[in-house]
């Protein structure tokens, strides 16, 4: 893959929100995020809030006060120049000072104290958003500063921070034991034309614009826009389904070291992996979804698999994981206009018809759903449903500048982390776009991650490998 010189996507004046639009966008995003935070932290009792449900996760009450503490640090102190409310608690809620495993041992605020703190911070934050004068530069992305007139990005950063914790808290809900706490919402709409979709779509070769220099709330790791030459490749039209994954299991996928990378096989042995997290065998595959056991739904994207499992599956299918650049090109590049879109469907903001985001359904939609969200190449569900593992390590784009601090992205660069793209049903549209990058260790399974596979434009497709019918996942849902 060749890196070219920076060739930023064209930004028309209509792409840039006005200061007033950004102000109301920020306030609405913060209020919506808090509604979700409140739901996730009132759905369980006090004992459940302070309990650690998994060493991988914080007690929910830590998230609750940490959200308020970050909002205080950035909006009240940095933007609004207000005095600290509770400076003594800052170290307790500094994610870099205390790994998740040790957070239950800290002198945390009680649930009542955390809620009171959150209300107090929020009231002042909304006041600051209303009264801050924003510069045009600040409205159109990084203002160079987070204070005063440069605060436009800070509003978006804090809103994205809270919804990212809403996603983390949803993962905690999935890990907790005991009776279901979240009410099952309506299932996502099934597509009418899924059976007629091709197994894979072609993305022609050539340069495209990756990353962004124009998206107002894009984080440092999404910047700057730059041209990348991606050879033509084939990509699965939809994420890999439970039925396809069950066929991999039934074919001995977990028992054949030839299908796994050396590190992956070592991990598979050490961790005793035999199926996705939350799956169990009871005459057929059953999975527990937010406390409710259910037969694994064949045509839903597979969920809660680690990078090593995704990599092994792809090898079994005679394919590979897409690179991060391939994923973004499939999701954003419009060959007719020779430009990169904000989303697969275009530049317009998300709507519920375009992607499964925002914890509306609490499960992925069947493969092939959301025709209104299809990319120009024909791929579906690139945004929403499940995070998609890519083959790529988490690395900076050429011209990267750390912002607002090195711990945001820079300290994570390197081969330890693999990139995930596209967001999942637990992700808010505020923190999801065609350029958004997520990263995690290749062993992680508690995140809402699945994948799709790709192949280079050489040789023949092996994608016709079908479910044998003996996989433990019924063909019809
Ligand atoms: Fe955080």
What does this structure look like?
The protein is α+β, with helices and mostly antiparallel strands and 477 residues long. It is 29% helix and 13% strand. It contains 10 helices and 15 strands. The chain has helices at 19-42, 46-50, 60-79, 111-131, 136-139, 152-175, 242-250, 262-271, 307-316, 324-332, and strands spanning 2-3, 200-203, 206-210, 226-230, 233-236, 279-281, 285-289, 292-295, 333-334, 339-340, 387-394, 414-421, 437-440, 449-450, 454-456. The protein has a 4-stranded mixed sheet. It has a 3-stranded antiparallel sheet with strand order 1-4-3, with helices on one face. A hairpin with a 2-residue loop joins strand 7 (285-289) and strand 8. The two termini are 41 Å apart. The structure holds fe (ii) ion.
**H/I helix tally:** 10
Q: Specify the biggest β-sheet.
A: 4 strands, mixed
Give the strand order, joined by hyphens, for the main sheet: 13-12-11-14
Output the radius of gyration. 22 Å
* Proportion of beta-strand residues: 5-15%
Bound molecules: fe (ii) ion
Mean pLDDT: 90
Number of strands: 15
The stretches of 5 or more residues where confidence is low (pLDDT under 50) are: 1-14, 462-469
H/E element string? EHHHHHHEEEEHHEEEHHEEEEEEE
Helix content: 25-40%
Structural class: alpha+beta
Shape: globular
Describe the oligomeric state of these chains in a short phrase: single chain
**Terminal Cα separation, in Å?**
41 Å
